[in-house]
Hints:
Radius of gyration: 32 Å
Oligomer: single chain
Order of helices and strands: HEEEEEEHEE
Amino acid sequence: xxxxxxxxxxHAILLxxxxxxxxxxNCNHLEETMKRILxxxxxxxxLAPFEGAAQTFNIxxxxxxxxxxxxxxxxxxxxxxxxxxxGTVFIDETDLGKSKVxxxxxxxxxxxxxxxxxxxxxxxxxxxxxxxxxxxxxxTGIEPGIDRLKVTGNLTI
Length: 157
């Protein structure tokens, strides 16, 4: 075998050996990563509630709306929302009657889309937001329906 050919063969063997060890190192790293992912999944699974367990959720304002519709002078409906609120929902899947809803709503956050009307609703004529800045809703009963729940409760302003 000629010297340049032998040198190329040795270079190729060394390159293959180097790539093999890089591959093994990457496999070890991948194996460690997979172990970590598996441990993480097992931890998440162990923290997940069992079927039928009671759970408490915080109401997420970015995915929830508090809306109202009021009949105005027997002619039209006024629709609006309250934009600032917080609360919790406790759900007992085994006995919905034990479930609860508790919400606090900032009365000044009323929005009907018309500033003049909103300001009037914030005044002492209606919500008197200076004197009563927060209203609360606390459920007293939850009844299951076919495709929805009927929640009754006390609204305190």
